[in-house]
Amino acid sequence: MNTASTTTSTKKKLHYAWIILIGVALIVGLTKAGLTSIGGLFITPVTTDLGIGVGSFSLYFSIASLVTMFSLPIAGKLIAKYDVRVVLVSAIILQAGGFAAFGLMNSVWGWYIFCIPMSIGSVFITQLAGPILINNWFKKHNGLALGIMVATGGIIGAILQPAAGNLISDVGWRNTYFILAAIVAVVVIPLIIFLIRFTPASKGIQPLGADEVQVSQKEDEVAVAPSTAGVSFKNAKKSSAFIALFLFFFIITSIASFGQYLAPFAMSNGFDIKFAGTALGLMQLGIVAGALTFGFLSDKFGAKNTAIFAMILGVIPMILFIVAPTNSVVFIIGVVVFGFMTTSLGTLVPLLTSSLFGMKDYSQIYSLAAIGLAAAGIIALPVYGFIFQATGSYSSILYVIIALLIINILLVLWAFVGKKKLLANGAWEK
User: What sequence ranges are listed for the domain Major facilitator superfamily (MFS) profile (predicted)?
Assistant: First the structure.
């Protein structure tokens, strides 16, 4: 007996899907934490320095969301049609270039203009690359993979958020825009070129777990299935399940968008920019824990139950912010729990889509539903800004968010009632 060959055959080679996950996690994490979600730290220093109203400045978030909304369907086609590395490198140049240009501006119009190329690039990298590549490479452990991706972003954010707060304080907001854009571009471009591949076929292999997956049509389970199983795009987009999913996306993004105001919210309660940066950094630790937790819970208890749990959990930080907004310990606890809850956006959004509609036309269904994510920024971010501008307080916003969390629970229940109807009508195709 040849023991050497036996030993070799029993060893499992690391599947390239895990290399893809490492690359995607770093790319998405750096671009989100370093360019997209960090914008809130600049609100107070920029508006104070240039004499711009918070609501007027925040309109650039709306413009960015509007550009994202119109770019999503086109981006979904381009990322599938052309070399993914060329597409993503072009995207990071647009995103980082637009972000760096903010440091040169003296008028709010500069943010309105340069958020356009920044948002176009962001669509490819922060919105589509993660879910699509993980869906292509993982037919097993989808929840775990998404959780790791989001958790990595949280770890990166835990480093970059306080560092950015200190940079703004020490070298000014203009130089901080330049430094962050340079760091992200220099790290991300090589990762894209050397690690990323669109499909396993490009490496001559099968997706991870392709030989083990089974079709699942259970009402509240993530459907881990071959790409041909599920509801067609034609049937999905007309269903009540899709309407509920779209609205859920819209509302959970509106809730998470309040994260852009946590820094000015902290400063409105007497804290300084360094404390705000530290608090946002600690929030990233909540994001790390939440990403792994929600990935695990979704795989074990289903996307439906996990989504409901996340919405209930989201009420806690709002209450803490209402009751004791000037207490530093309570504030940080609230921020960490908020980060824990909002990380469900990164895991539950794609998992709810696959749980409700399967994998048959996943990319098309997800891209259309994701317009709800973009649309939320158009409305929620400036509304929050103008509410503060009109009232001088964030209290009303906190009550609105509690109401939105309750509405989202009802939408999850409605979505799965809609799935039952699709299954009863034979819409699930194999």
Answer: 20-420
End-to-end CA distance of the chain: give it in Å, rounded: 44
Instruction: Render pLDDT for 208-243 as a digit per residue (tens, 0 to 9).
Output: 766 655 444 444 444 444 455 778 878 888 889 899
Q: Return the CATH architecture of domain 15-209+216-429.
A: Up-down Bundle (1.20)
**Cβ-contact 371, 69 below 8 angstroms:** yes
- Select from 163, 74, 164, 83 the least CA-distant residue to 127: 74
Candidates 296, 37, 287, 253; CA nearest to 145 is 296
CA–CA dist 181, 100 (Å, integer): 6
- Record the pTM: 0.69
428-429 and 230-231: which strand pairing?
A: antiparallel
Alpha carbons 142 and 347: distance in angstroms, whole number: 9
**CA distance linking residue 157 with residue 169, whole number of Å:** 18
For the chain, domain boundaries: 15-209+216-429
Burial 259-277 (b: 16+ CB within 10 A, else e): bbbbbbbbbbbebebebbb
Inform me whether the pLDDT recorded for 422 exceeds 80. Answer: yes
Nearest to 59 by CA among 387, 371, 386, 372: 386
